Amino acid sequence: MSDATPVQPPATGRSGRDVAAEYAQRLRTECERAWQAGEALPRLASGAVNKTLLAQRCGFPRRVFATNPGALEVLREWD
After folding, report:
1. Which of 72, 32, 69, 25 has its CA nearest to residue 51?
2. Which residues have a Cβ under 8 Å from the Cβ of 50 and sit 6 or more positions away?
3. Residue 35, pLDDT score
4. pTM attached to this predicted model
């Protein structure tokens, strides 16, 4: 059984900025949840953050880390 949240598409009719802000907030919420639970962010064997698993937990596509500067900033803050 997986603890990943299914990818939740943004509501139609919303601007790209609104969607980007929502995804960054989802990431911040997941990082805060993990910190409060005493959990580390998911990591690859190399020690880098496992962005695929983290995106699944947040319910957004992995490509958000390549296209959303706000999400990257949140990741830098919590890494």
Report:
1. 72
2. 41, 42, 43, 44
3. 96
4. 0.82
